[in-house]
Amino acid sequence: MSSTAVNKKVLTTPIRDEDLADLNVGDVVYLTGQLVTCRDVAHRRLIELGRDLPVDLKGGAIFHAGPIVKQKDDGSYEMVSIGPTTSMRMEKFEREFIRQTGVKLVVGKGGMGTETAAGCVENKAVHAIFPGGCAVLAATQVEAIEDAQWKDLGMPETLWVNRVREFGPLIISIDTKGRNLIEENKARFAEKKKPILARINEQIRFIK
Amino acid sequence: MQVTEQTEDRAAAVQQLTDVMWKFTSYIGKRLPTDVTHKLADLRAQETHPLAKAVYQSMKDNQDAADRLDRPSCQDTGVIQYFITAGARFPLLGELEDILSAATKEATIRGPLRHNAVETFDEKNTGTNTGSKIPWLDWEIDPKGDGCTIDVYMAGGGCTLPGAAKVLMPGEGYEGVAEFVFDVITQRGVNACPPMLVGVGVSTSAETAARLSKKAILRPVDSRHPNPNAARMEELLEEGLNEVGLGPQGLTGNASVMGVNIESSARHPSTIGVAVSTGCWAHRRGRIRINADLSYEILSHQGVVL
User: Fold this and answer.
1) Looking at the structure, do residues B103 and B181 belong to the same domain, yes or no?
2) Residues B121, B185 share a domain
């Protein structure tokens, strides 16, 4: 486990606009406070079905994740494994979700699109990437599960309210200025592939 | 009397193999195969971008924590797929389907595994990781054999999403195959937890290519196709994709892939079926060889005790 670096940037919930103003895409931050799992159906319920979210997210942080949770004999929950899921699935809802809830930090995997980037600018919020597949590392940074809402959605979709300490690394992928790291990267990848393919294609003309 | 004993022996044998298979299925969710672990160590050592290095370090910390705490290393333990090469004289050939279903249920409880089987059209999660045709079984018969080799694969959502197949016209040639692979990986690969293992099927139709592309990622990371042209194409695609430099999680870096494996069949002269399957960096697969007396050997992971 990496030790705490001197210049480690830690965000604490409730997050204020000024905490995010100087963050740029590619910066690495950590989160202390409350982190609520929130994915496909929870987004749909709020935005499309108009239901009130049972957790207050103002100044808060959500995690696109469907964890493995164990219920202990005393009824309390233990976080076993919790890694990020593909954020792009929530693109359809996220701009409006940010506006309605006042959430400040959206954590997930991979990038999100132009709508979410617009939502981040309008409401001074950021999207960050937690390294995909690192689910046990993430679980060890969850101190406790404080609440569970909408349990009717099943284990992956329940809103798990986690108390986390220095949760990360979180790599800022959309900042409050609207820069979008993964979209920028994808454009670069598309540009780079052209000459590479031209070179490969010279060498695989097996049909003669 | 003799019949009863035989029935009891058979039930005991079924239980014995079920125990081995649930333990192995659970095991592969917690520890990566030896070839993948070595490849990730190489990529981590060679990485020069600071952000990419940090992500590789998180990946290593994660696998160490999963091993220490005996937990599934990724929360998405996938849909369970078994790729079976069964000897025609394997004693439990007829029981194997039921055994693997029972093993999946047991691994789900004991692993634990996340509940990942949603009954299609009913849209209900079964809660057992079993359902219609799930766990998915793929069969090949070894006509002379009396043992059985099983590849277990956890098909997670993220690395399954880029999967694609299409049928090219011969005029598009192998160049069309290369372009298809590059398009899939550069457009959709960033969400599939790179560095990925890329499987390419080159065959006669969409479904034959798709099956072969999945079989390709069951092969070891640094293995090569026996045909020299195909092996050359594997190398070229691997080098080329790495030059694009997706890096871990698509954050840019020195590599994009752990490797590119091609599987192929003969094809219709008028078609080139091509498909791509991707395995994420946390490529959770395992290969076990079961003998006729139900003794076994784990081929994919060194030093396993079930």
Assistant:
1) no
2) no
Looking at the structure, tell me whether residues B167 and B246 fall in a common domain: yes
Decide if B52 is inside a domain: no
Residues 26-45 of A with CB under 8 A from B: 26, 28
Indicate whether B253 and B163 sit together in one domain: yes
Helix (H) or strand (E) holding A186: helix A181-202
Residue position matching structure tokens 């020195």: B254
Contact list in A for residue B233 (CB cut-off 8 A) is 204
Domains of chain A: 9-179 (3.20.130.10)
Full residue range of the structural domain in which residue B87 is found: 2-30+72-156+285-298
CATH number at residue B143: 3.30.1330
| B106 and B206 housed in the same domain | no
Structure tokens at A35: 């982190």
Q: Please list the active-site residues of A.
A: 43
Instruction: Judge if B7 and B129 occupy the same domain.
Output: yes
ipTM, two decimals: 0.90
**Sign of the CA dihedral with B22 first, then B24, A140, and A28 last:** negative
Count of structural domains within chain B: 2
Q: Report how far apart, in Å, the C-alpha atoms of B302 and of each of B224, B288, B298 are.
A: 21, 12, 8
B280–A132 CB contact, under 8 Å? yes
Helix (H) or strand (E) holding A78: strand A77-81
Residues B197 and B210 in one domain: yes
Whether residue B117 sits in one domain with residue B22: yes
Burial (0-12, 13-18, 19+ Cβ within 10 Å), A22: exposed
Number of Cβ pairs < 8 A linking chain A and chain B: 177
- Interface mutation target, options B47, B69, B75, B243, chain A, most CBs of A under 10 Å: B75
Does B231 map to a domain? yes
Closest C-alpha to A144, from A47, A51, A69, A63: A69
Per-residue pLDDT of chain B (306 residues; tens, 9 = 90+): 566 777 889 999 999 999 999 999 999 999 999 999 999 999 999 999 999 999 999 999 999 999 999 999 999 999 999 999 999 999 999 999 999 999 999 999 999 999 899 999 998 889 999 999 999 999 999 999 999 999 999 999 999 999 999 999 999 999 999 999 999 999 899 989 999 999 999 999 999 999 999 999 999 999 999 999 999 999 999 999 999 999 999 999 999 999 999 999 999 999 999 999 999 999 999 999 999 999 999 999 998 988
Cα–Cα distance measured from residue B209 to residue B145, given in angstroms and rounded to the nearest whole number: 27
Residue of B71, B175, B237 with shortest CB distance to A136: B71
Whether residue B53 lies inside any domain: the answer is no
